[in-house]
Amino acid sequence: MADLASRITKPDEAAGAAPQVEDPTEGANSVGIVENAYDVEVKLADLQNDAESPLFSVQSFEELGLPKAINDGLLAMNFKKPSKIQERALPLMISDPPTNMIAQSQSGTGKTAAFVLTCLARVDLSKPQQPQALLLAPSRELARQIQGVIQTIGQFCENLIVQAAIPGEVSRETGVRASIVVGTPGTVMDLIRRRQFDVSQLKLLVIDEADNMLDQQGLGEQCVRVKGLLPKTIQILLFSATFPDNVHRFAQKFAPNANEIKLRHTELTVKGISQMYMDCPDESKKYDVLCKLYGLMTIGSSVIFVRTRESANEIQRRMEADGHKVSALHGAFEGQNRDALLDDFRSGRSKVLITTNVLARGIDVSSVSMVINYDIPMKGPGAGVPDMETYLHRIGRTGRFGRVGVSISFVYDRRSYEALSEIANHYGIDLVQLSPDDWDLTEKKVQDVIKSSRARPDYAPNALGN
């Protein structure tokens, strides 16, 4: 357990230290996309890697030559200048002839807007019911969210129709009738095979959360089958916050001769989030510790991540029996119920949400100030290997777009302790220890972060090295 101990600050060492914060708008555009001092690495495709193919970069959206309706949508959203990823990626993605792209960028850097703008730039709106762009996501929640972003940025585009290809949303009588389609791979594949989705004129395929979507242990096979049903000339854009080596190699085959854009590995941890851990006496005491944290969870909104659906249901039942107001959301719920639960959480009608990894990826709820890893994310046979990527995606649900955030991971035995240690060492995280035996100090530490109105990109309260 020495590895984790070397990366944490004990509660008594932290006593009396005050957090330092700074203005979150510094280095950010007007909608709060964090512009940390990271380097954007660009690797041009072999066919373009010559002196006649310079690497483009833009300083304004106007330089891209987008239609006025799209620029008006950007202004309505208060997007005044591209983020660093957008500066480098957009000229490559919208240039002709179309070129594939593999893009790795952390949460809150504007990657969704980047591929949405590419979709809007590619479609011919004189054919509003002819599918021309397909976007794939791992869950109905993320597909719905992306659909909303397209509709918002494209609000001034006449005849724009965006349709969700998720379970229960596409009529068997009419099939898909939209220029842009956002869906999950299983439903999309079924629609194509039933001849309810004409893919003959598709120009663009976007895969969000590509590390999960192309993982052969997950949705990879479905995505390969969908791609096999599409035109061979289609442009492919792959986006994710993380790309493990094995998935990256597969991505290069899936999107051949692609340009690549990424952040440096050491800068991939989510900025502006104070990452803490609670050393619980044993597994049975985790629930008691969770309930003690309830008052802190409701300062903003909070997400509690657990390993199984059964755990989510049981914790919800126990917390409600103890008088706490919580909701649970996971894959066992019917689609419309899932939509309603997420809408309640977005609106603030529900402030504490217990979920499995269904919400770990891509979901943006701006009010989330705390994420709790009730179970450390694990993968592999017997769930014996720490899941580095899922940890990063989970904690990325808070601290969105320069806001402050806290993540608290529960450990209770040697296995969970060592798993968190491996994650901390992998990302170079300075973890702050919270003690279940000193709640006054624990509450002060968490409140100091959550109640701060401003976030510092490298803020980790009282951690070693500060």
Give a quick set of tags describing it.
466 residues, Rossmann fold, 2 domains, disordered C terminus
Describe the protein's architecture and organization.
With 466 residues, this protein is of the alpha/beta class. It folds into two domains: 209 residues, P-loop containing nucleotide triphosphate hydrolases (Rossmann fold); 224 residues, Rossmann fold, CATH 3.40.50. Helix content is 34%, strand content 17%. The protein is built from 17 helices and 18 strands. The protein has an eight-stranded parallel β-sheet with strand order 1-18-10-17-14-11-13-12, sandwiched between helices. Helix 4 runs parallel beside helix 5, helix 5 crosses helix 6 and helix 7 runs parallel beside helix 9. The longest helix has 14 residues. It is globular, with a radius of gyration of 22 Å. The C terminus is likely disordered.
List the helices and strands and how they pair.
Blueprint: H1 2-5, E1 8-9, H2 11-14, E2 40-43, H3 68-76, H4 84-94, E3 101-104, H5 111-122, E4 133-136, H6 140-153, E5 162-165, E6 180-183, H7 185-193, E7 204-207, H8 210-213, H9 220-228, E8 235-240, H10 245-254, E9 259-263, E10 273-279, H11 286-292, H12 294-297, E11 301-305, H13 309-321, E12 327-329, H14 335-347, E13 352-355, E14 368-373, E15 378-379, E16 385-386, H15 388-395, E17 405-411, H16 414-427, E18 431-434, H17 439-450
Parallel strand pairs: 1-18, 3-8, 3-9, 4-6, 4-7, 5-6, 7-8, 10-17, 10-18, 11-13, 11-14, 12-13, 14-17
Antiparallel strand pairs: 2-9, 15-16
